[in-house]
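To whoever is covering the structure queue this week,

Two jobs came back overnight. Logging them here so there's a record in the thread.

Job A:
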Amino acid sequence: MILTVTPNPSLDRTYEIPNLERGTVLRATGERMDPGGKGVNVSRAVAAAGHRTVAVLPLGGAPGALVADLLAGQGIETAPVQIAGTTRSNIALAESDGTLTKINAPGPELTPDESRALLSAVAAHARTADWIVCSGSLPRGLTPSWYAELVTRAHESGARVALDTSGPFLTAALSARPDVVKPNAVELAEAVGRPLASVGDAVKAAEELRALGAGAVLASLGADGQLLVSEAGTLYGAASVAAVRSDVGAGDASLAGFLAAGGDGEDALTAAVAHGAAAVQLPGSVMPTPSDLDPAAVLVTADVPLDRAITQQGSPR
């Protein structure tokens, strides 16, 4: 079972438009409404792959109730923590050429009691979890060290932890030794304090995160592939994509595939790349099902193309 923790979930509305023109009336050619937040997306992808998942998340107001209804409609088990604030609503504008513009709301501020209730909800399900996924930004009211405390408690319960966050939330949690961290290129560069021009630069940065406490680093480099840097060595994976429709949640789908395939080694990296490649070809934040995957199209090798330029830097949280 994969338990996900999303401290700052959202109600995501995605509109497909021909192109974005400022100051004009835009008419959408398609629209979707999905439960959002990185951990929520991981749960959705795990469920779509046919595995059990439980989503722990704070919910409040009408948007929070709608998020709960949407998750229930997808057959996802939730452990909601009711809060006084209102769950945020995010907007994504997806252009026909694959360009995505996102407007992310800040979200509610959690009280100390709500913070403790969230940790208690995780503890109540942790002992039945194989992996605990801690994903996304922290809402107002939670300090950067909150993830570190969560990682420590998860390890005490015997679960492995995958951490997908950025900035001070990531660096503060490394000392708690998460089993896997999953930055994109921008987040990896931010964590080491310098730009990354090549895959080789990304490998060195990942090794630095391991030296700071990360057990393994699964780094998404956008169209330039993925890296898995662990105690066993470094693997590189890539797959060609005919057309990108939306990259919302693609990294989360990739992490879900990685963990569902065991969370270590060549098979897990193959699953991660296959899930990510499938996700970018689907609308909005739709998560791929097994029929969408093409693992045969994935190349995974220990012969890492160190000189390959990173052409798609990704986007920060």
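Job B:
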Amino acid sequence: MDDLKFGKRNKRGDWAPDAPIETAPLFDFPPRLKAVLHWLPHYFFPWNAIFAASAVAYWAWVVPSVETMQSISIGWAAWLYAVNAACVFLFYGAFELHLYVLRRQQNRFKYNGKFPSEQRSKAFWFESQNIDNMLRTFLSGVTIWTGIEVVMLWAYANGYAPWLSLAENPWTLALVALVVPIIHEFHFFCVHRLIHTPFLYKWVHSVHHNSVNPSPWSSLSMHPVEHLLYFGTAFYHLILPSNPVIMLYQLHFAGFGAIPGHVGFDKVEVTDDKAIDSHAYTHYLHHKYFEVNYGDALIPLDKWFGTFHDGTPEGEARMQERYRKRKERLAARKARLEAKGATQ
């Protein structure tokens, strides 16, 4: 495909889409029914449908019996870890192989024209972004993902979480399943703002931001504290009227759903003339500029809090103006403290 029909490439080889980022019309006021109906298929396909299907498959073929889950044991916990690790390796690895190893679409639709394997940095273990990202994914990410999964399944098996049956509560469960991405977005935004506070950013979130040029394995490359906060989205189902399948969907939305935002390409080509939209540009700009787009634009939280960057020159100008005002506030505060110190 010709990516220049959809965007432009600068002298460094970085590509950017022509169309500005738009937030989902779901929360627009006044409501725009036509826009919502046009957007709705994109809410389900392809990504959310994949993550929901994987949760159903887990429940059918992977998750142990309720009797087994009533007590936590190394056996079934290790089994879940092995399956999670294998699925992550296959799912993440498929994108890595297609886009970064074989480079089947070269740098078409790639936001950052360079590939991580071409750049070594002491910020990473063994000075390799890929090795660092993979080790953090499997040593910490999949481990904590599995730990939370085990705790939640144990809670369901012992009646500590509200378990509604599909036969008796189809509409309630359908509604909860529909809002899984919204729960994730709300949780992700709140946690993301929290770990951008100076102390937590320095000691926790900076690990993830080392991957300025993100690739598939960057998706779950985080500090263990961030993994715990990130996958903590499953704990909402200790309160919500839900069931284990929807809880698994929530976890899979976080675990497998991290891929689209970090794939590094705007479109993933599947044939010579067809491609799947990654919708990754929103989060790519966060990795590039650090203090914009804390959410993924499903809920317009960044618009409401003044941190939205839509990828346009106007968005760039708003960001720079916000930085300028913050710099002035910090300078004024420093001047007041110095003046106060001089009078004492």
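Note for Job B: The two ends are 68 Å apart (CA to CA).

Please reply-all if you pick these up so we don't duplicate work.
Q.
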